[in-house]
Amino acid sequence: MQYRLLGAFCLFLAICLFSCSPKxxxxxxxxxxxxxxxxxxxxxxxxxxxxxxxxxxLTPQEYLIPEDLQKDIEKNKRVIQHPPKDKWVKGCNWETVxxxxxxAYKIVPEGLEDKSKAIMYLHGGGFVIxxxxxxxxxxSHIAVATNRVAYVxxxxxxxxxxxxxxxxxxxxxxxxxxxxxxxxxxxxxxxSAGGHLIFNVAQIVRNKxxxxxxxxxxxxxxxxxxLDEKGLAWYDHKDGMLNLEDTNTTFRFYLNGADYDDxxxxxxxxxxxxxxxxxxxxxxxxxLLHPGTLEFLERAKKEKxxxxxxxxxxxxxxxxxxxxxxPESELGMQQIADYxxxxxxxx
Length: 347
Fold this sequence. Notes:
8-stranded mixed beta sheet; Rossmann fold; 8 strands
């Protein structure tokens, strides 16, 4: 009897949680979902459960020197997943290309005729690992939804290739893409460390020749490469993707003594917004980087930068990437696609 009551209670709780889940926008005529409040006060059951399970198994690795991290990466091949498997890029074809001698993968939605518009996607992974299978799935979803060719540069990573290697490769790849696409038809997308890099690329090409991309989409971007251990203790216990100790360790290996106050390193406090393209930024209230993101957004608004932001309530780091798993991620994908397709476009 007790087990039946417990089972019934759990079923009732699950139904309540599912009923509070965000729902996909049922009206395809609405093109500005990125401006709408689509998230409730509760997470979906799957997002809450997924974050809790990931949090349970997320433990600091205590890398003391770069060689320790590199050995761990070499042992665990699943932390660097390329080339993509066909099942990760459903609805798309892919091929290997070189972008100014930078290895990259070109993802093309099946049946796409107009190939004038493109995405350059820079993957996350703390500047030391990636891309992952879930990132390939997310990117193919966006490519199909926006009818764009997507390029994925495999930039050099720390610890063996510290700053500024990743941004140098990213700029080279972007410049190669401009040989076949106009800058205004290119959207840069990046998550986490990749979100940091898309801001770097935009700043560098702005200063170099002014050929900035048409739009930026940053998913939980790294905006500062040194995190406050005391001030972020609460978030350290909430985020299922990042822990404070390992994140600061990878940042240290990435910077390798570089000036923290460099505008290309400390974006939160020192990035120059002048002349940058419009940006969509997605963050979650449970993620380790959220407080710094809010400071960045506040400064961007004061400087009148054209930035649209979406905050996932009680969501962890890079939550939009869990497309097909979390309802919130499905909404995030819809909002990203609508922003790329319709923001700033005359009706």
